[in-house]
């Protein structure tokens, strides 16, 4: 008899826990559903803020965030898919903003956002993710120094443009004291990315929109 009561008690507790778990799962799902639009909206606002830092608003008048394409190319520093956002002026493609990778940073890959037109002119660059040494390599971050702003307005005159290097290598960009590898990696990546962006007009009809599934 005592054993039966114990079993009944265990069953009741089991049912209670199951109901409680189901309720918590349901509440979590509801909270996620309610907060997802807000989170997505904030992410879009942050992205737009970053776009405004790398490309002047008078260069384009379309909604770049709605003109996203998936691109892959060794020039972008990795084999992964890189989002490219197309800038148009009165319907005409004029520039692009692209998430690119500098694979050879001191502490690993550096993720960058680069904006350039189709003639080699760089509008701006910002770091999206990096793991460089604090106080040395992290000077590529705009919150630490203005070094990264030095790309704005610079022009890449083809693959053999030797000015696109740090001064230690005969180029026009400052390196950091005690940290040459990091700025060297960023300069190389921005140059390669700007050259890639020059090829975008010829690829437009073949680009896959972001979110589209391959058939």
UniProtKB/TrEMBL annotation:
<keyword id="KW-0597">Phosphoprotein</keyword>
<dbReference type="Pfam" id="PF04205">
    <property type="entry name" value="FMN_bind"/>
</dbReference>
<dbReference type="InterPro" id="IPR010209">
    <property type="entry name" value="Ion_transpt_RnfG/RsxG"/>
</dbReference>
<keyword id="KW-0288">FMN</keyword>
<keyword id="KW-1278">Translocase</keyword>
<comment type="subunit">
    <text>The complex is composed of six subunits: RnfA, RnfB, RnfC, RnfD, RnfE and RnfG.</text>
</comment>
<protein>
    <recommendedName>
        <fullName>Ion-translocating oxidoreductase complex subunit G</fullName>
        <ecNumber>7.-.-.-</ecNumber>
    </recommendedName>
</protein>
<dbReference type="InterPro" id="IPR007329">
    <property type="entry name" value="FMN-bd"/>
</dbReference>
<keyword id="KW-0813">Transport</keyword>
<feature type="domain" description="FMN-binding">
    <location>
        <begin position="105"/>
        <end position="197"/>
    </location>
</feature>
<keyword id="KW-0997">Cell inner membrane</keyword>
<keyword id="KW-0472">Membrane</keyword>
<keyword id="KW-0249">Electron transport</keyword>
<feature type="modified residue" description="FMN phosphoryl threonine">
    <location>
        <position position="180"/>
    </location>
</feature>
<comment type="function">
    <text>Part of a membrane-bound complex that couples electron transfer with translocation of ions across the membrane.</text>
</comment>
<keyword id="KW-1133">Transmembrane helix</keyword>
<keyword id="KW-0812">Transmembrane</keyword>
<keyword id="KW-0285">Flavoprotein</keyword>
<comment type="similarity">
    <text>Belongs to the RnfG family.</text>
</comment>
<keyword id="KW-1003">Cell membrane</keyword>
